[in-house]
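User: My collaborator and I are trying to settle a disagreement about how two of our proteins should look. Neither of us wants to argue from intuition anymore, so we agreed to look at predicted structures for both before our next call. Could you fold the first one, then the second, and keep them clearly separated?

Assistant: That sounds like a sensible way to settle it. I'll keep them separate. The first protein:
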Amino acid sequence: MALFRISTKRVLEVQKISSTNLLRPLSDASTDLKKVLNEKVPQEQERVKAFRKSHGSTKVGDVTVDMMYGGMRGIKGLVWEPSVLDPEEGIRFRGKSIPECQKLLPKAPGGAEPLPEGLFWLLITGDVPTDAQVKAISQEWAARSSLPSHVVKTLNDLPKNIHPMTQFSAAITLLNSESEFVKAYGSGVHKSKYWESVYEDSMNLIAKLPGVAATIYRNTYKDGKGLGSVDSGKDWSWNFANMLGYDNPQFIELLRLYLTIHSDHEGGNVSAHTTHLVGSALSDPYLSFAAGMNGLAGPLHGLANQEVLVWLQKLRAKVGDNPSDEKLKDFIWSTLKSGQVVPGYGHAVLRKTDPRYTCQREFALKHLPEDSLFKLVSQVYKVVPPILLETGKVKNPWPNVDAHSGVLLQYYGMKEMNYYTVLFGVSRALGVLASLVWDRALGLPIERPKSLSTDLLIKAVKA
């Protein structure tokens, strides 16, 4: 078989074509998501089966020693259906860019930002949903949202000095007691039906996450008081904001945007890959997602937006709210020369300004253009990239999503930085659980790459 390589750009082009094909009208306008998937799964199973039969031995890339020691960066070794990250164009959800999703996905009455329910429908089916289909998901998640009493009791009994992400992971793990997949697997269900109970678990988990996250927030920061309730007539983000204790319509709009854009970033990032890996052992969605959240809690992943704010506070204390560009440059050079990085700048894959940063900036320009912290972030955006390019050591000098999200949350009164990663986790469930359903629908096996010691690697290279 001849060796050939598929570029990321070509993968994106193929995904766009596939997405266009997937956007054919359904045979009916069903608002039952599981019924829609029941129609799609057999078709996709046959498509993948035929593709593997004809191209199973085709090589799609090479692996270098640097890739192996560099965290497997750039190795093409995963199948991930919901999204693809292109270095130049940024994330595409089923072939659609963030601006396209903002335009095409249904919105709340009077709202301007896409509803996360619509993005989930897109991620799991490949179809842009109708207003009725999104409303059905909102109602279904509201109906599934109640928490088991033992989970609520555990959260209420936890010491309040335990990090919110630790509480979040623990609660998700405890929800495993409700797993439909565990019951189905124990009853001997055929593997071709695994996806159905994984779907049920995923829908239940997504529905319950706002309640878990809001309970953690109210317990940790508000003495356990003021936890709002779920309104079956409202959308997922509205209910989440209400449970958190926020009723500002702009904050609710921000939450809709935040939960949409943080949902997925293809399969190689730590939280996504971990969820996929643990799920490949047929751990249920609760255990798989809890493992992914333990990865998200790391400072090199989901904790990064908090680190951006800490750095901005140091910057603000040093140069004030309206510094000259020269003062700002001096502080940035001082940061770099001390061996530190400018948090929120650079990305493992992207080679341009993160589209997730851009849409948050547009939100700020619309709703809080005179906010002093936003103005400082904008000035940093102007000053930092040329400095990073001047060092000659940075491939991507542009800001990523973390460089902006914390500033918006601060503006609307959510100043508890330790909690921000929990919000990220609620959002990330949409992408990783949509993928987990397809992992089981396509019958993907347990993941088990081959590892080598340094001695064996040296021998292999010499050979």
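The second protein, kept apart from the first:
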Amino acid sequence: MEKRASGVLMHISSLPGEFGIGTFGKSAYDFVDFLKETKQTFWQILPLSTTSFGDSPYQSFSAIAGNTHFIDFTLLVRAGYLKVSDFAGVDFGTDPEAVDYAKIFHARRPILETAVANFLASAEGPEALSVFEQSATWVTDFAEFMAIKEHFGNRALQEWSDVAIIKREEAALAKYRSELKDVINYHKVCQYFFFQQWFELKTYANDNGIEIIGDMPIYISADSVEVWTMPELFKVDQDKKPMYIAGVPADGFSEDGQLWGNPIYDWNNHLSTDFAWWIFRIQESCKMYDHVRIDHFKGFSDFWEIPGGDKTAKNGHWASAPGFELFTAVKEALGDLPIIAENLGYIDARAEKLLSETGFPGMKILEFGLYDETSKSFDLPHNYSANNIAYTGTHDNEVINGWYENLTVKQARFVKEYLGQADHEPINKAMLRTIFASVCDYSILCMQDLLDKPADSRMNMPNTVGGNWQWRMLAEDLTVEHKAYLTHLTELYGRARSNN
């Protein structure tokens, strides 16, 4: 990483465009151009993985497979696999500032099926797919999982009505592979489209001096290909139902704690295999991104383990994880890696020790520090150290305007005094100025905050289901004034990328 640098947090889904959700098409390339023009270094995104219950990219059917909603139809027209008439007039949603996941789930499928059929009928398609399958060693298992899941009405793995296929008995596998061959191929080709378009976009970003910060969730969904094919990696029973699930104890987001529902890892198994699966997973993530933000880093030192049938996180307990051994094995296998630790939430001495031992940069959240009304918070800039990334907030926090509206009079007074906020200075600019001026090597702003968006542009409310991950910007939101302000801020505090 280049010292004293900055960037923007903006998920692919939030890009403007005509297909109901942001894609890897023109708007994504335009966003790279915007980052270059404003002298940024980083584009930070959320997980590119598939989304399931609650539309969350942190509840995915696969640790590796990509979200096919991001496949751009115009690029498929250019490749010869679609015609404009294949999607002209299709209703992808009526609100250009919000993703309607139910609508795009149904509207996009027949269009992609047309593209897949044309791809497989083309001269180059079957050979290109064969080459892809050889490098994407995970894709066959994923495609089979998704095809079988659809066969059972998209129900979760543990709810499939055929126990033999839940347990992957050979006769059952042979039966479904034969019956669902076309659907299996559909999912394989969609993954080919996804990765082809993503890597073309990433190459364009890198060629223009922009580095991608990707996001790797710590946990895997219970309804996933990994639990289906590698149950030994998790604490699940013979029916692949989680015996223990992940979450966190009571915090600022929830009085009962957060019940995430992901199965807990069987760390003894991971130790016995020298962390082979983790090494593979991190290696794949480093192919996809220039820097990998590992979500919930504390879970690698110790984690909140909740009995599988519980409805809240109250009855959990702290259990130890072999984080130091894991990252030592990863370093021995892959060398020094561009990892960022998401060290937010309850960070105790064990988590701090692991972060120090790895040397990974951590994260500082200005909103957290300013709640405190004292000078003691480690999230206040005068307590920052250089090897961190400064944020006003992330996708899990309120946007600045929403956060500010909820302050008490006393808190607002402290905020104004601490930030040195002039009477005419909007709160979003005062907050952004503060993180860019900080000693942290890197600062990242959320796109909503640059655009001065209201509270309803928040991306996610932790521990809630529904109504999240929906915000999209409009192309006209990004004005000349916004660009000029970001460029000025970046140059003023020595964060401008030198080769821009």
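Some points you might bring to the call about the second protein. The first strand starts at residue 5 and ends at 9. The mean pLDDT is 95.
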